[in-house]
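Bug #77: duplicate submission created two jobs. Keeping one. Sequence:
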Amino acid sequence: TTGTGCVEVTQVMEQQGGEGVGDMDMAPVVMAAGSRHRRRIVKLEESVVNKIAAGEVVQRPFNALKELLENSIDAGSTKVSVTVRDGGNTLIRVQDDGCGIHEGDLPLLCERHATSKLETFEDLRTVQTLGFRGEALCSVSYVAHLTVTTMREGDAHATRTVFRDSKIEDGPKPCAGLVGTTVTVEDLFYNMPIRRKALRSPSEELAKVIEVVGRYAVYHDGVGVSLKRHGNARPDVSTSASDTKQQKIRMVFGSQVGSNLLEFKASAVPDECDGEGMSFQAKGYASSANYNSGKRTVLVLFINGRLVECSPLKRCLETVYASVLAKGSRPFFYVELTIPHEQVDVNVHPTKKEVNFLHQDDLIERLREAVENAVFTSNDHRTYYKQTTLQVPGAHNSSILGSEDPAGARKRGRQEGDQKDPRGREATTRRDRAGGDYKLVRTDAHEKKLETFFFSQDKADAAAVLGSSLAAGSAETAEEDSSGYKRNQEISLSQAAPSQRQGVSELRRRNAGSDSRGLTSVKELLDECTVDTHHELQQVLRSHVYVGMADERRALLQHKTKLYLVNVRTLSKDMAYQQVLTKFGRLPKLRLEPKLSCRDLLMLQMSREEEEGNWTDEDGCKREAVDLVVDLLVSKSEMLEDYFSLEIDEEGSLCALPMICTRELVPDQRKLPNFLLALGHDTEWESEKACFMGIADAIAELYSSEMTHVPSQRSGACVDEEVEALCLEEERAIQNVVFPLLRSSLRPSARRAMDATVVQVASLEKLYKIFERC
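Kept job's structure:
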């Protein structure tokens, strides 16, 4: 009944043919206060009850994933793989190697309150599994498309079953599979449009999914957990069963956290007389006073194996660091708490993110004391960072700061003062001399950037990706040709003496003016490269200002008031191709120690071709094909070494590669298998011109530059310090090695201005017009 002044809201349910109406078909009826026309009390249909309950258990994608992850761990899994798409909004797949599900239990799998973990209510007081209600899969089946594939040890095949609204819709059907269970959840909240629209963006949901998976990955010893986005080869979270707790924390939360951890322990036992009182075991890690990268407090709390939240504990532990951390820094805590099951109530929250336990205040105080003792006993030293003045040998401080002598300033001032602005007035500022803000170029391509000084003095160390394969070799003295040039000179990669670097630069200058040994075919190939040179594009490359890498292959450049997007891989390949032809027969060598087996490299490439579907059993034996290519390369080794400094010995080992420009630019070792296959398979050996063009193109492809590591752009994602460092080194190599070579050596063809290799993406003049309209 409803009293006077109250408003009663009921749900109108239409029943047609005994079927209940869906969640969106229930129209709300608001009855006015004091109305005497009331509907009779009716019992809601089971489908309506289940949909209401599903909305409580599964609120966001990470809630469904958490339930599935706990089921996999309860099944005794040692490896759990999670795949998501759109942050879990459209796909969640959890695959484990646990005990599997008995085929006879599949009809009850998604029934509400059907579970293998409880039998009586008393079992709830001592339950040790993460799941116990039997609600998770039932709730998921009411709000998503649910598919379960399972196989037990000893079964002849796996079984695939599709569920809808807690009932089997299709199956069970036999299928191929592995021991364990794979649960696939697709199109979450497909039948609840309002709830689906209320979901966060895929990036926000993904950040929450990574947080949940990462925390379970850290806690469970002996369980390897991986998480990746659908279509991505590299996982976002990856731990193995053999990793230690500290290693897992480092992998999931970053090296800054992993390098500044303090271990602490706390415990309490009940009174010996009556056996009552506080009892617990706690251990964990807390960040030290040197950790200052946290922007918010992170508390990872597991109580009896359950990932839960506890705001009072979090606030209490924060007070320990009030006088230790710098302003704006926040601590990190990882706590494993074990409490007798009879002192914990786990059935207090629909998503089980909270639990109630006895003696909460006393237990929190004990943990605070343990953390405080660990922090202050290890606070005997601190690490501080300060800025240092960069000193460049042979340079004056005034030049580093960008100042100039008074005489130079007066001379520059007189030159600038002679200029007039468009209105006829004396141009006294850079803006007036440029003709206005929309024409003002605020960068200078000839200015040295700060990154140049931070770039390694031995640029080969930053640019080299061949690792130990490119070893130091002594410079061999070779016979001189008629022009007095030393042929096939071998350059050492490890030595960084200035005289040697100067020798390489002098070598490059002498090469630029030499002919290509007088061969008509080579001259024709060079003419084809230079006859259609696009001079405007060449001017852009020569006077550009490097902005940064847009992705692994494209970079942003500024030229005057325009911004360009250029394909670094294509331009660097063109530059390498032209250099091979320009220095034909006079290329220095990069010695490989130890030698690399051409057969092994070609077998590796043939395996890749087979995986990509480019080679099948019908094409023949891979080993025979590899032997044919190796025999061909060995038979042509004299010509390859004489003209291209590519040395292959009689045993079929790769001994040396050509150095096309400077010692700072070396090829990527991962391209060597494809390089050898292209050399043997794609080269037309019968025609001199076609042969030289094919070999030059293969070498150019080997030297084409791109970033092999791409930093994560996701908001809230865990940062891999090693990957970030590799990305920085690769970008510095491209900026300080590749682009200077493009600036000085490349003659871009006209087709590069038409095939989207260079694209103008912005113009200052046009941007100002847009701003004026706004």
